[in-house]
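Hi W.,

Here's what went into the run:
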Amino acid sequence: MLGKALTGGKKYWMWIILLGAVILAGFASYLLQLKFGLGITGMGRNVSWGLYISNFTFFVGVAASAVMVVLPYYLHNYKEFGKITVFGEFLAVSAVIMTILFIFVDLGQPARVLNIIRYPSPESILFWDMIVLNIYLLLNLIIGWQTLNAERNAEPQPAWIKPLVILSIPWAISIHTVTAFIYSGLSARPFWLTAILAPRFLASAFASGPAILILLCFIVKRLARFDAGREVIQKIAQIIAYAMVINIFLSLVEIFTVFYSNIPEHSLYARLLLFGINGHLLLSPWMWVSFVLGWASAILLVNPQTRKNDTILVAACIAIIISIWIEKGLGLVVSGFIPSPLGEITKYIPTTHEIAITAGIYGIGLLVLTILIKIAIAVKKEAES
Amino acid sequence: MLDRRKFLKLTGSSIAGLSLSSAFNILPKGLFANTPKQKITSYIRKWGMTVDLDACAKRPGCRDCIDACNIIHNIPDLGSPKEEVKWIWKSPYPTVFPEHIHIINREEIKNLPVMVLCNHCDNPPCVKVCPTKATWKREDGIIMMDYHRCIGCRYCMAACPYGARSFNWFDPRLFLKTVYQDFPTRTKGVVEKCNFCEERLVRGLLPACVEVCKENALIFGDLAVIDSDVTKMLKQRHSIVRKPHLGTEPKVFYIL
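Here's what came out:
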């Protein structure tokens, strides 16, 4: 089936070349980082995790969100989603690959990465995250590939695939829960020390991941003339709407507890994040952009009139992706470090190399996604005709 | 802290000079009593330190302890606060003890410099999170670092409530004026921190910062011994630790 990725029009190859160029540029910057150290990034002793770990967190959510199309199809027999479950699974595959790469480029000694396996440390949440992410990658690859294979040969799914699919549902929840536990178990960072972090992560994931899936559906409809169908897209849009509403609710709940209890070591983070300090805005403008985009798109998607308009739907999906990317990345990961344990307020600005490396990983993710989706559509079209 | 002192007193007097191993601390008494043949064969130390704030403040601007530490541990001088590597340094009182400031005395207290370093917690959050066991707690309570195993994920830095850990954002060897031969240099991409001068302790020497302090503001010793300097200091004077509510049980105590 892989051969199907090698046949494409001019536009397809231009896109592949563009992605290749972005990946190469990122790789060049990574070589520099390897040579000189992580000092070439904007990170430092106070803000010691930045753009890489922010993106890692966001894309774990995207990966987990595949469950939102898999679950209705396999558990509730919602047949319409059968057309796109494989898209969800392949989106998960490319997102998990990105998360693994984001962790990898964040390591100071990447050559020693296998130490995580050589010296297994079950007390460390990172150890468990490594396990759940890799198994999730494998699950989705196997399920997605096998689904497609069955479709190509016009035969039913083999019996052994069903237990794997059922397993992949709680597994999706687990990857984002474990990722939340990386943060929410740290006594050192009051900003992250909240039991609703995992539920918040899941809610935001189930809004942002399916939003990417809808965009993907519109893109393949236009470029590959593969129509997922209006009903499917509207159903996903509903899922996004309610996930987003829950996400907003959870963040307001968090804000209430933090500000009403007014314990300085908790409220200071939120205050800095939302309002800055002494005229320094820090990350606050980003957060307000995130709020406005998030709330506006939630309203647009809950309201059936606006949701059913494709243009508004696409705009709302883009808004949700931006909103949640800011919320989880800058708003959650970076903010947890400001102020530092000794009260220092540090500005974090990613460097050009850091952004190039990040873009390179986006390039790899998009390349994997493009190839997998291209194969999937070719198989689906063959099966139809 | 009272509990610990009471415990030290008890063990100190009952087992003449010897102390129970740290592993026994956590065993319920009944369990221990049921194994009478258990012999106490090894003597386990519990290193700790006191920092006398008033004594330290007698020499404003003094940085003898910092310099001594930096030299013998090959700590690079990067000249930039963003990538700085620090094992022991000074920080203003309100940043070290935010829970111990109140409306009275604030100005006086604000000016008090406080030496900060790794607390060698009894309950170290950094050790728990390390995915490769590159940082671990020794029997004598020292939190160690394996610079050859660390993968540089910096999870321990996120987990340390005291900001005691530094990462080598660049190759530290490029920023060393002289290399002190008795201690290893580090490579880029690994985390490091104060080691209570364990390389000196094995030779029977005090930590360098303690040794060079002209005001005896730093006192180091065995918390498991009833009449060690550090235990006596803790008995006689009022002490606080950083962020006690987190349950990390620091072994660096501040004398007020």
